[in-house]
Amino acid sequence: GGYRGYNNSTQDGVIAFAGININEKLRVGYSYDYTLSALNSVSNGSHEIVLNYKVNLIKTAKPGKVIYNPRF
User: pLDDT tens digits for 4-47?
Assistant: First the structure.
């Protein structure tokens, strides 16, 4: 969760959020923002849904030939 505001006189909102990993590549999240300030007369809060899909663009490096370096 979270809180938005600078001090007691500027309390603006509270946030609740949660997420879950569906599998190694897919994640789903949800958040709700409830407005505490005077804006709540025109806003009942906001919802957000996030889908995150991981794409592996970098190939893993293959181990190369080992070259031993003698130290003197």
Answer: 888 877 888 899 999 999 999 999 999 999 988 888 888 888 99
Amino acid at 46: S
pTM: 0.65
Q: What backbone torsions phi and psi does residue 50 show, to the nearest 5 degrees?
A: -120, 130
| CB of 45 closer than 8 Å to CB of 34 | yes
Q: Give dist(CA 41, CA 8) in Å, integer.
A: 19
50-53 — which CB contacts under 8 Å span 24+ positions?
50/19, 51/26, 51/27, 52/26, 52/27, 52/28, 53/25, 53/26, 53/27
Tell me, what amino acid is at 27? R
